[in-house]
Amino acid sequence: MAYPKSSREKSCNPISNSTVNSVTFGVHGNKLQCLSKANLKYPVLFAKLQESDAFESKRCKSYEDMLDADTEKSRGNFDIKKLSERSSESHFNDEVSGALSMSSEKLLEYPLNYEACIGKLRAVYLHVLAAEQWNASRLNKCHRSYLESATNLIHYLALNSLDVDELKQDLYSSGLVDLERTNSHVLASITAAIKLLENLQPNSSDKNHKTWPLDVIHHDNVQESDNYVDFGISAMRKKASMNKAALFGPAQDEKNINIMVTVGREAIENETLLSDLVKAGANVIRINCAHDDPTIWSEIIRLAKHCSQMLEKPCRVLMDLAGPKLRTGPMNSGPQVMKLSPKKDAKGDVMFPAQVWLSRPGCAPPTPSAVDATLFVESGRFFNEIGIGNVLEFVDCRGRRRSLKISKRLSASSGYGFIAECSQTAYVGSGTKLCIQKKKGKSSHGEVVNVPAADQFIRMRVGDLLTIIREPSLIFDEIGASTCGAAKITCNSGRLFDSVKPGDPIAFDDGRIWGVVQGTSINEIVVLITRASPKGSKLGSEKSINIPRSEIHFEGLTSKDLVDLDFIAANADMVGISFIRDVHDMEIVQQQLKKRKLAELGIVLKIETQSAFDRLPLLLLQTMQSPNPFGVMIARGDLAVECGWDQMGSIQEEILSMCNAAHVPVIWATQVLESLTKTGIPTRAEITDVASGMR
């Protein structure tokens, strides 16, 4: 068994020359045989990240600053005694040293070298226990409800700090145990493997081979007053289930899967949307506080709770704090015009007329996906005089005469409406008059109202220049090309202008557009676009801005976050902590929750930066100091931009494994079934993505 190079450099003695000492672990109170260096300097704990060969220099990610122990303090907790001269201990010492130094060529001479595997497993077992002891001060700070989970996380990190790939392969290929699937119960799995191998040894009845102390093997079964912790496999799995139920509620079916759906203003514009989502299986509604306002949020939550009660299906509410995320600023509202477009073939002939829903204001169509557009019409007797087959004539925004033919009358949740067909492209805006020609030259009119403003955007292509301006008022009326030919957009965060420098890469809209900073000033940043869609990529307001190589510093919670937190405390079940970066950010969140006495509010740590990923073990241990139920969200949009899309697969697996070890539920987010939401048909990759997420 070999330690990572950086760990070996901290000790001049190779591991095969380690001595075996009798050590007393204070937490568990029983004597354990522990491999230690002759000078009692234990190797620092490392967690090995599986990365590509191109990143060989970064293969071992050090958690020295996170999970290291005070060596001098640790010495004081260890009762080191002299080795006795008993032959059994001497035999065990030689056995372990020989097993650890045995070459792979010698192992291949046998189907499975039981003594070698047992020796290695014993050494791993002792290393795991030592890591627990080294980090006793951190574990003591954890809330009692998370003690088992925090301890197992330490065990997981200790196991992954060792180069035991060969041992894992030997055990797996022999059909004994798969150490890759034991993250949630590390200690119990190692113990079970040792017992199993000892029972399978050809000479297992020989008393000379019973040198492994029983109190070590039964470490997880020893009860020591109030410090007893059950690390059994069943207990660990039960703990993981309890943590998940505390955050999301009890499981409703055998699949035990939660479906989270993000909604916004559209949820109150379409009265049946939330009801349909809950019926389809959604049991968590997510609201992003970066968009809309408390009035909209309150109505969404009211509708969600109403649907949950009426359908007798549980539905919780998660509200994400906006956090210190950089976004593009507002743009002028576009024209209040809606385009009606029939489906045409390659020759331009109409194949299917555009389906238009006509109703009074506030009456949404019963099946929104079945119509291409919704028009609200204000008129006293207009709808009383409409019938199937009637033709409504109007002049569109371009001055062209167009018509709508009524094809169906449908009932809706708050009234009724009509389906009309439009066979020519038309642009309808607020104020457009619809006219029904009746007998004897009479007519009836209705006026189109509440047409939403079109989203404004600028289209960026490779080679274009983009100017980011600090003060929105400078260009609020002149979005588009400037005198120097560069498009303009705003960002009101001064940190962006203070942190970037020429040559820094910069990304927009979750990495859909990339550029390089060409120049900076107090109020402007000029960016050269280096990556965009061949036809040009749209960049609008409220889109993300990422500067992955910058040393930009963010505050933990913004002033807006603190105001929104009061609303969340009164209305939601969970709060999402956006753009968390280090333990200090989490400490600020915990202080604010404690100040408001929110011990039962669920917490979701959104991992969306390289800094948060690098410090994930520390963030988990820090969060475990509070009694709040919590989980982790893999926010793959910003995380892929910050860390690189080519690293996303390994990073995602690392987060899943670590959270599994900490018994923390994970939310799989960003672009989940995106094609399904846009086109109605998921891609094959999205189907398998969801299947993986169901783990």
Structure description:
By secondary structure, the protein is of the alpha/beta class. It has four domains: 240 residues, no CATH class; 214 residues, Phosphoenolpyruvate-binding domains (TIM Barrel), CATH 3.20.20.60; 113 residues, Beta Barrel (Elongation Factor Tu (Ef-tu), domain 3); 90 residues, M1 Pyruvate Kinase, Domain 3 (Beta Barrel). 33% of the residues lie in helices and 22% in strands. The protein contains 24 helices and 30 strands. The protein has a seven-stranded parallel sheet. It has a seven-stranded mixed barrel with strand order 11-12-18-17-13-14-15. Helix 4 packs across helix 6, helix 6 crosses helix 8 and helix 6 runs antiparallel to helix 10. The longest helix has 21 residues. The protein starts with a helix and ends with a helix.
State the strand order across the main sheet: 5-6-7-27-28-29-30
- The pLDDT mean sits at 78
Q: Report the count of strand segments.
A: 30
> Which assembly state applies to the chains in this document?
single chain
Number of continuous helical runs: 24
Could you describe the largest sheet, including whether it forms a barrel? 7 strands, parallel
Give the CA-based shape: elongated
Based on secondary structure, the structural category is alpha/beta
- What is the alpha-carbon Rg in Å? 32 Å
Pathway: Carbohydrate degradation; glycolysis; pyruvate from D-glyceraldehyde 3-phosphate: step 5/5
Protein name: pyruvate kinase
Enzyme class: transferase
Domain Pyruvate kinase barrel: 255-341, 477-692
